[in-house]
Amino acid sequence: MAEVVGNFVAGEWRQSKAVVENRNPSDTADLIGRYAQAEPADLEAALSAAKAAQVQWAESGPQARHDVLMAIGNALMDRSAELGRLLSREEGKPLAEGKGEIFRAGQFFAYFAAEALRQVGDWVESVRPGIEIDVRREPVGTVAIVSPWNFPVATPAWKIAPALAFGNAVIWKPANLTPASAVALTEIIADQQLPKGLFNLVMGAGSSIGQKLVESPLVDAISFTGSVEVGRGVAAAAVANMTKVQLEMGSKNPLIVMDDADLDLAVSVAVNAAFGGTGQKCTAASRLIVHEAVHDAFVEKLVAATEALVVGHALEDGTQIGPVVSEAQLEADLDYVAAGKAEGADLLCGGERLERSTPGWFMAPAVFVGTTPAMRINREEMFAPITCVQKVESYEEALEVANGTPFGLTAGIMTRSLARASHFKRHSRSGCVMVNLPTAGTDYHVPFGGRGASSFGPREQGQYAVEFYTAVKTSYVAAGRP
Ligand code: NDP
């Protein structure tokens, strides 16, 4: 029986009664580990330790914070092959993507190591003679971080790194489906010279320990990434305590293919955007909006490229699409396939469960055509290897369809026209616009986020992160006369 891995609370690894088993979605016979589920007493201990540790950390100065963040970043980048394998084994993304995610997480820490040194503030002359004003940024205090399973290391990294860089304490509740990745990142952080209790890991179900964390009046800010439904509850809990909150949530990202697009490029971009990470990305393109002049040719190439994708064990050479993350996710995905068919869409390929040599949650990537904006498969986030083609008559119609959901995370256009690309950049109702690029795949040094139901609160990443992880203070000093 595998040893139970505890939670990291107040500088110590603590066991608890309840335990979950973590299994490989590519091979459910492979037990990755057993993980303790944090109890309310663990959370209370973490909150109290975090408060004391944060004061010490804030006083440690930017050089100390830089050095710690840089060390974490370097450890992640140096160990990306080993930890990427663990991530892929646990989450199901192909090995290259797992390694890439760990390396990227390291880059977030390295970036925010440098941000720790940037002195952000203003000195301002008062409108009243003899008075000086400075505007400075201070840590917000204790930050609760709640993260999803699909980027189990990169997403928490882009939250933990700025939280620590700007002098805050952290209590992290990772998704319960991916505890091994959470523990691996925590071990690296725990190896650093940090005040005891500055960083805490509390594993457990979102509905119990997650809910308690976001409801705590001892939390000063909450950074959440996950579904709209849960995000709404997190926002309500935050407002009840007047806690600062930032939410990154669902999406329904469109990729427009215009009549002047390079069709081969459009197909490879669409396949990458729709099925990368088994479609389980908040930036996945689940809506392909295609001009009628190129519709049939595009669809023919798209189906051929989709059918050629190799679906298999995440750690096997040659695998392009891993399993979906869990049995529940597979069932939900197959329900969407059934819903699409029931609403009259044509399924041209995929959409069925696949058997492989190991027992896992494999699904053939699916392409629907003949879909309309009113269909559920074009309105709801599926988080599945399913994409839906909608035929349009003009650029204007394409833009209207693209902007026609409550979401607005990323949006793409395939075109050779500078005028259309420029118009789309201005009029797309989204947080990130991609021209001749997949909707998924963003840089680590610039802001990331969306509009509408996709995001709420200050932006994440890049220099914009300072807004959420700091509080602004304006000080007035009557200088007097020497
Ligand atoms: P969920 O919303 O189900 O869960 C996200 C996190 O919230 C998990 O850690 C979960 O814990 C926790 N949680 C669940 N219920 C509560 C609660 N009542 N109070 C506090 N925390 C809670 O999302 P998924 O994990 O299923 O992730 C998929 C979703 O994440 C998709 O909708 C996707 O779009 C979104 N996402 C958004 C991104 C963005 O940047 N916009 C990026 C990546 C994903 P547990 O899992 O243990 O129950």
CATH first level of the largest domain = Alpha Beta
Helix content: 25-40%
Secondary-structure-derived class: alpha/beta
Question: What's the overall geometry?
Answer: globular
CATH topology type of the largest domain: Aldehyde Dehydrogenase, Chain A, domain 1
Number of helices: 15
Bound molecules: NADPH dihydro-nicotinamide-adenine-dinucleotide phosphate
Q: What Rg is obtained from the alpha carbons, in whole angstroms?
A: 23 Å
Low-confidence stretches: none
The main β sheet shows up as:
7 strands, mixed
> What is the name of the CATH architecture of the largest domain?
3-Layer(aba) Sandwich
Percent of residues in β-strands: 15-25%
**The CATH fourth-level homologous superfamily of the largest domain:** Aldehyde Dehydrogenase, Chain A, domain 1
Tally of individual domains: 2
How would you characterize this protein structure?
With 482 residues, this protein is α/β, with parallel strands linked by helices. The protein has two domains: 4-249 and 445-475, Aldehyde Dehydrogenase, Chain A, domain 1; 253-435, Aldehyde Dehydrogenase, Chain A, domain 2. Helices cover 40% and strands 23% of the residues. The protein contains 15 helices and 23 strands. The protein has helices at 40-59, 62-78, 80-91, 95-117, 154-165, 179-190, 206-215, 228-241, 263-275, 292-307, 327-342, 376-379, 395-402, 418-427, 466-469; strands at residues 4-5, 7-9, 12-14, 19-24, 27-36, 121-125, 131-139, 142-146, 169-173, 199-201, 221-225, 244-248, 253-257, 285-291, 346-349, 353-354, 362-363, 366-369, 386-392, 410-414, 432-435, 455-456, 470-478. The strands form six sheets. It has a seven-stranded mixed beta sheet, sandwiched between helices. Strands 10-9-8-11-12-22 form a six-stranded mixed beta sheet, sandwiched between helices. The protein binds NADPH dihydro-nicotinamide-adenine-dinucleotide phosphate (NDP).
